[in-house]
Amino acid sequence: MIAIAKNSRPAAARDTLVLLDNPAQLRNLDLERADRQYLTEQLEADPSMAACDISGRLVLVHLSNTKNRTQQLEKARRAGDAMALRLNAGKRNEAQVVSLQDDAELTLALVEGTVLGSYAFRKYKSDEKGAPSLEKLGIVAKEVTAAQVDELGDLCEAVFTARDLVNEPVSFLNAKQLASEIRNLSRNAGFKVEVLGKERIQALGMGGLLAVNKGSIDDPAFCILEWKPKNAVNKKPMLLVGKGVVYDTGGLSLKPTPNSMDQMKCDMAGAAAVACAISVAARQELPVHIVGLVPATDNRLGGNAYAPGDVILMHSGLTVEVLNTDAEGRMILADALSFGEQYKPELVITVATLTGAAMRAIGTYGVATMGTASDNEFKRLEEAGDTTYERVARLPFWDEYGEEIISDVADIKNLGSDLAGAQTAGKFLARFTTHPFIHLDIAGPAFLTKKDGYRTKGGTGVGVRLLYQLIKQRAEA
Questions:
Q1: What DSSP line would sit under 124-184, residue for residue?
Q2: What angle (nearest 5°) sits at the alpha carbon of residue 180, between those of residues 446 and 267?
Q3: What CATH number is associated with residue 16?
Q4: At a CB cut-off of 8 Å and minimum separation 6, what does 365 contact?
Q5: Other residues' Cβ atoms within 10 Å of the Cβ of residue 171
């Protein structure tokens, strides 16, 4: 990842990324009049970015002239990404951001876009072709503190880690290895982790997780993450539950072809988001008590795989009729939610690549959300989504959706009708918690088939920034 640091003054010969809110501020840069005029003319035509090559030194300028705050921050991030593309194409190793305006949040957004846009998953590449070259980024901005720079560095590193985990194939990242990676995160960040193996999972009666795992030759894992600072502002913890299906074939309800399984290494993106968000909260020592739960397994169709028609006794004591083995995420999340009841949380949030229905509803542009939490909780979530541009779209959660999962042979079934699949999945999860509940379905934005600004192709790390911002808001409240 690019190393970012606050500098006291600009370096004259270094490639420079400039942020301003008035073209007249270009006079504060050490530029020839002709170069300044050239940049001004470009900004009049397109304020997103102007570029000038001054004897081999790149000067790239973004003019912030949007009044809508959400769009203003996002345009700065996207400008940072465009600047990173230019620098990496030129094989530049080091650059500086020079702010000529007074908005710290805006400056940090530009830096964030530059850093996040410079990500590439290179672990299995044998050459350096196409690898980002940018390694260091200095920040010259009187409005930004060193603490804010450190926080942004921790956050970007966590997003990179989440992207790496999502991009890893199951040939490396099985359930046991995912648990090992979460342990590594905990050691580096300072939160606690306990990993339960198959025997403990069986002893706890986690029938949903065990059922999904029946077709696999690899054992499941159940990770309990906790960040509990002494000065926590909440008496009851926030409970974050992330889906950890490391690979999903659909089981005996095999996914149809073509291209339906190509991206299914991403089915643990919820687990990655939860673990990485907690890691940033711990690094930043936010005064919020957080518990994270990650049930992990792959979903295969070998051996004694669970089958449509099976009735599963869940950890909560409820019975579930299985109608589709590809509705496996809700099975493992349900056991985690039931296990989480012991913490008596003030708020429960599930994060999962759960349904194609959510992606069809809102595309890859945001996160579908629903649940039983108060309108105020959803308002805070929406504010966090607008701040990070990991926007949320709240779907209705009417009682009728719950009626669709009533079973003739068990308490409930794991599939509703062919309509409103995101909501019936959410209603299934809601049966396993008695506390205020928010469900985030990240199926759309978790894995992209093409680059979208600083959201690079493949795993995006969606949810890390959103959850961290929500935790931070709770700390400040």
A1: T-SS-TT-----EEEEE-TTS-HHHHHHHHHHHHHHHHHHHHHHS-TTT--HHHHHHHHHH
A2: 20
A3: 3.40.220.10
A4: 391, 444, 445
A5: 9
Do residues 69 and 160 both lie within one domain? no
Domain that holds residue 35: 3-144
Helix (H) or strand (E) holding 369: strand 367-371
Annotated active-site residue in 75, 198, 243, 330: 330
150, part of any domain: no
If DSSP codes are grouped into helix, strand and coil, which group holds residue 22? Answer: coil
> Helix (H, G, I), strand (E, B), or coil: what is residue 195?
strand
Beta-carbon contacts of 390 under 8 Å, excluding residues fewer than 6 positions away, are 366, 367, 384, 445, 462, 463, 465, 466
What is the CATH classification number for the domain harbouring 304?
A: 3.40.630.10
Q: Mark whether 276 and 418 lie in a shared domain.
A: yes
C-alpha distance across the termini of the chain, in Å: 32
Per the domain annotation, does 300 fall within a domain? yes
Contact 266, 166 (CB under 8 A): yes
Q: Are residues 196 and 80 in the same domain?
A: no
Q: Is 14 a catalytic residue?
A: no
Tally of domains within the chain: 2
User: Is residue 149 situated within a structural domain?
Assistant: no
State whether 359 and 302 are in the same domain. Answer: yes
> Do the Cβ atoms of 316 and 217 come closer than 8 Å?
no
- What are residue 94's phi and psi, to 5 degrees? -145, 140
| Residues 99 and 213 grouped into a single domain | no
Out of 6, 36, 236, 255, pick the active-site residue: 255
* Alpha-carbon distance values, 213 to 33, 327, 343, 412, 428 (Å): 68, 13, 26, 20, 20
Ordered DSSP codes for 197-238: -HHHHHHTT-HHHHHHHTT-SSPPEEEEEEE--TT-S-SS-E
| Same domain as 256, residue 138 | no
Domain-located, residue 301: yes
Tens-digit pLDDT profile for residues 10-37:
988 899 999 999 999 999 998 999 999 9
Q: Are residues 182 and 296 in the same domain?
A: yes
Q: Let me know whether 166 and 91 are in one domain.
A: no
- pLDDT band at 130; cut points 50, 70, 90: confident
122 is a catalytic site residue:
no
What count of Cα atoms within 13 Å lies in the side-chain half-sphere of residue 99? Answer: 25
Q: Is the Cβ–Cβ distance between 41 and 17 less than 8 Å?
A: no
DSSP states of 35-61: HHHHHHHHHHH-TT-EEEEETTEEEEE
What digits encode the pLDDT tens for the residues 223-268?
999 999 999 999 999 999 999 999 999 999 999 877 889 999 999 9
User: Cα separation of 322 and 345, whole Å?
Assistant: 29
From residue 182, how far is each of 155, 186, 302 by CA, in Å?
16, 6, 27
